Amino acid sequence: MNDPDWPLSVAGEERASGDEGVVLGVREGRTNVSKERPQRSWHLSTAQKRGLSVGLATGLYGISFGALAVVAGLSVWQASALSLLMFTGGSQFAFIGVLGGGGSLGAATAAASLVGVRNAVYGVTANAMLRPRGWRKLVAAQVTIDEAIAVASATENPAEERRGFWTAGIAVFVLWNLFTVLGAVAGNALGDPKAWGLDGAAVAAFLGLLWPRLKARDPIVIAVAAALTTVLVAPFVPPGIPIILAAVVAVILTVAQRSVAPRGDEDPPQPVPERRAPRGDEGPPQPTHPAQPQDGDR
Amino acid sequence: MTLWIWILAACVIAFATKFVGYLLPEKWLENPWVLPLSQGVTVGLLASLVAANTFVDGTTIVLDARLAALVAAAVALLLRAPYLVVVIVGAVAAALTRLLMG
Predict the structure, then answer these.
(1) Which residue of A has its CA nearest to B64?
(2) ipTM of the assembly?
(3) pLDDT digit string (tens) for chain A, length 298 residues
(4) Does A223 touch chain B if contact means CB atoms closer than 8 Å?
(5) Which residues of chain A make contact with B90, given a CB cutoff of 8 A?
(6) Is B63 exposed, middle or buried (0-12, 13-18, 19+ CB in 10 A)?
(7) Is A35 helix (H, G, I), strand (E, B) or coil?
(8) A222/B40 CB distance under 8 A
(9) To 10 degrees, the CA torsion angle through B23, B26, B28, B29?
(10) Is A74:A205 a contact under the CB 8 Å cutoff?
(11) The pTM is what?
């Protein structure tokens, strides 16, 4: 580890990637890269392996999106268009969730767009990490999703960040789209969706997206208030409006929470360059970055 | 046709949201409101979707098999089941409840 140009040099890039067991230190402590091995071309780096496993796991539940989309009234083509073009799971589920509940197309679009706001934050993060140029910027933007940012942020090494981002982003894109088609076709063939419990699947799908975000008191308060708002106003306004009101409640509560504790006691926002040491094991990438997604969120 | 137009519009908005991040200066993240608001709104919307899909039918509040799905999914999540398993558990719980309660 006497290469002064690390992590910019090519040799440094190769050295720092590799099998599980490689423990990357924090930027200053890079001498604790252990189990040094030269990377061979057929070896996937840690970030690439993570990217592929996240891609497979996430891609698989494209099945549930596809099936729920046709149950909500979309055609197979329309479900596929959402996965190809919108390609951000939370928003896609929000879109069909509002439609499935009888909401208007405008409300569905508004809900999907609001759920997607976090992607702008990810975009800033990814741009800082990758610095893509030209057409790559457009491609990078399309695969800027929770999983790609999660895998990229799980490492310190810039080359690994890049590999992780692209591997996860492209793997999720390909598999998510394949499984969406599969799910949509299967959903069409199922007949009565209620007999198969597909409305229960939708409930579980949204709870599964919400769950990893409920790790502190503030988000739990927001979640409870938003859910209560939804149920309380639902009898009095057209379908699709409760979710917009819930978003308003979330904004008000966030402002109130931040005003009480302006610096934030649990999760203070940090500028991009602030990164923490990654974990050395092969588990799914953990949030190590403030602008980072919670796992399981698509 | 209207459905297609809205789908495409929503997709354009989604891409523009992602792309705008690549155009914004990094400093934007330093604004103390950006992260909490984007996280807060996401949590609020997802919680609202959970509630609406469990308790709301059109403009009426109903308690039906979907509540069983909610409980079963929560148990699966507490047991750290993978996402796809959680979704399947929700479906099975709702289907079984309907079957048992006729």
Answers:
(1) A200
(2) 0.91
(3) 333 333 333 333 333 333 333 333 333 333 344 444 555 566 888 889 888 888 887 888 788 899 999 999 999 999 999 999 999 998 999 999 999 888 999 999 999 999 898 899 889 989 988 889 999 999 999 999 988 998 888 888 889 999 999 999 999 999 999 999 999 999 888 777 777 888 898 899 889 989 988 999 999 999 999 999 999 999 998 888 898 899 999 999 999 999 886 554 444 444 443 333 333 333 444 444 445 554 444 4
(4) yes
(5) 197, 200-205, 207
(6) exposed
(7) coil
(8) yes
(9) 120
(10) no
(11) 0.71
Structure tokens at B72: 């079963």
Using the structure block, give the residue that is written with the tokens 């106003």: A233
Cβ distance of A242 and B13 shorter than 8 Å: no
- Could you tell me which of A128, A57, A131 has the C-alpha nearest to residue A285? A57
> What are B60's strand-pairing partners?
B57
Choosing among A58, A173, A206, A253, which should be mutated to test the B contact, i.e. which has the most B CBs within 10 A? A206
Q: Give which of A82, A145, A142 is closest to A108, Cα–Cα.
A: A82
The structure tokens listed for B4 are 């297609």
Tokens of B28: 């934007």
Distance of residue B14 Cα from the nearest chain A Cα, in angstroms: 6
Q: Which two tokens stand for residue B92?
A: 């099975």
End-to-end CA distance of chain A: 39
